[in-house]
Amino acid sequence: MVRVGLLTAFIAAAWLGQPVREGLAQTRPSVSASEPAKASAPKASAPRKEAGAAVSPYTAGLVTGPPQSTEFAITQDIATTLATGQETGPRGEVALRVLPMVGNGGIRNILDVLTLAGADMAIAPVVLVDRLRDARTIPDIQNKLVYITPLFVEEFHLLARSEIKSLADLEGKTVNLGEEGSAAALLGREVLNRLEVKFSELNLGLDAALDGMRKGQIFASLLVSGKPVSALARTAQMDGIHLLPIPYSRALQQDYLPSTFRREDYPNIVGTGESVDTIAIKCALFAYNWPTRSERFQLLEHFVETLFSRFPEFLGDAHHPKWREVNLPEVLPGWRRFRPAERWLQRQSGGEAALRKAFGRFLEQQPASNPPDREELFQDFMRWQERKQGR
Fold first, then answer.
1. Dihedral through CA 264, CA 268, CA 271, CA 274, nearest 10?
2. How far apart are CA 334 and CA 250, in angstroms?
3. What is the pTM of this model?
4. Could you tell me the sign of the dihedral formed by the alpha carbons of 212, 218, 224, 230, in that order?
5. pLDDT tens per residue across span 75-89
6. Closest Cα to residue 283, out of 155, 152, 100, 148?
7. Using one digit for the tens of pLDDT, what is the confidence trace for 273-313?
């Protein structure tokens, strides 16, 4: 009863005064130019998470982009790095494995996380996930989905044949926007329409599109992925393929960011002293919001603790340069962060230290007889704080 009474008293003090937390706040024809990107899921039925068991209680599934994408390379970095440095069991098993799951880099990545038992996380463009939320075609998506951390920007790579010098030269030409439902297809269609480029659309993979460009059947192809994309870095200028500039016009500034390609990004495509302007979008690492006491929640908690604590390892030259854009504490507006990720960041920023200090001062003012377990009481308080904030 003493333990319950102390916890209740401290909760009441925190609820009424709020001083503790306040100190921590820190091929087909193009469509009309007015048509928005079709970023919403089919409205027939809301997706449901499969009830079956996932691949393994020690394996987290991470849905990523196609194999040639930077997002896939980032996922491989995570999978291979976290697989090292762990103690192994009697049969060589490890406590944490990350399984890359190939997606299309767009809406399907999020739908997989919301429906597949083995899909715990996904790398996806923030603008598309925001549109899924705003369209309200997936009921309760803001409770089903949380984010672990924002990642990096993904650039729009508009590859063109040598005779195509500007967007105006694509008028009436065949342009490949990648697989239907991908970020390139959904957003590329929107961008070209906003820029009033009338074109005929194809939806092919990168290799097929590049082959069609070399044969003169396709005049441009769009890929949305973080620079440098290794498959493009190997594309030589002798193929007659170059990066076409996309101007950061007023029509794009609400949803997109400016970016630039330089020779160090693509030495085989961009000439010495040259640069190519383009646009970009932010991507993030999202996760399914598993029940707190479930095995999958505990697995993701272990994943976060491991990834965040070993994050400096990803900043070296052995890993993709996009890791250097990642800022773990960055906030994603409109979304809740996965609770263990939030707690880890609070510990690093001194947030939990401030709470413990205030908690200690409170306990010192209480009767000394029959003191409860201090750590257990503090953890109870932390859980109450999370419930109060709707986390």
1. -40
2. 24
3. 0.77
4. positive
5. 999 999 998 877 665
6. 152
7. 899 999 999 999 999 999 998 999 999 999 999 999 999 99
263-249-225 Cα angle (round to 5): 45
| Burial classification of residue 242, based on how many CB atoms lie within 10 Å of its CB (0-12 exposed, 13-18 middle, 19 or more buried) | buried
| Residue-averaged pLDDT of the chain | 82
CA 16 to the chain's CA centroid: 37
Please write the tens of the pLDDT for every residue from 197-244: 999 999 999 889 999 999 999 999 999 999 999 888 777 555 778 999
Residue 142 near residue 336 (C-beta atoms within 8 A): yes
Q: In sequence order, what are the beta bridge partners of 149? A: 285
Which residue in this structure is represented by tokens 């291979």?
Answer: 80
| Torsion over CA: 254, 141, 49, 81 (sign) | positive
Structure-block tokens of residue 169: 């030269």
Cα within 13 Å of Cα(55), Cβ side: 16
Element spanning 383, H or E: helix 374-388
Cα 119 to Cα 20: distance, rounded to the nearest angstrom: 37
Q: Could you tell me which of 115, 111, 102, 116 has the C-alpha nearest to residue 129?
A: 111
Is the preceding peptide bond at 228 cis, omega within 30 degrees of 0?
yes
Q: What is the pLDDT of residue 240?
A: 78
